[in-house]
Amino acid sequence: MESLTVAPAARVRGALDAPGDKSISHRALMLGGIAEGTTRLSHMLDADDCRATQRAMAALGVVIRWTGDEVVVEGRGLRGLTAPAGPLDCGNSGTTMRLLLGLLAGQPFAATLTGDPSLSKRPMQRVTHILRGMGAQVEGR
To answer: Do 51 and 25 contact (CB within 8 A), yes or no?
Structure first.
């Protein structure tokens, strides 16, 4: 197998035109939130799960504006998120909860994630086990 070396980029810039997709929309909102500066997203999927991610990121201090077909995310930088005033409600979105677990594991504050009764019954061990193995402090049922 050929060996590849990847080095950090000083800056990532560009445009990508893709149809709305729930999985990509979650990630775009979160990555935009930890980026430095403004991220403009088009073709975002406007669905309950993606709105749960938007609300959670807003509770972490990220400003997100939906204007027509564009979503503008004012990124706070990797260490710019702020501790939420209360639990982060992921609604019924397993993707929101699983991705936030990883994102929050690297932050300098504690946060509580919750969801509706259905989400509360879904397994998170595949994520929490790995995060604990990496040194994150994760507590939960």
So the answer is: no
Please write the tens of the pLDDT for every residue from 88-130: 999 999 999 999 999 999 999 999 999 999 998 888 888 889 9
pLDDT at 1 over 70: no
List residues bridging with 113 in a β-sheet.
Answer: 88
Whether 93 contacts 119, CB under 8 Å: yes
Q: Which residues have a Cβ under 8 Å from the Cβ of 46 and sit 6 or more positions away?
A: 20, 66
CA angle 126, 127, 128 (to 5 degrees): 100
Helix, strand, or coil (residue 137): coil
The candidate with the shortest Cα–Cα distance to 52, out of 15, 109, 97, 7, is 97
What sign results for the dihedral spanned by CA atoms 19, 67, 115, 111?
A: positive
**Residue pair 62/81 in contact by the 8 Å Cβ criterion:** yes
d(CA 70, CA 130) in angstroms, rounded, equals: 35
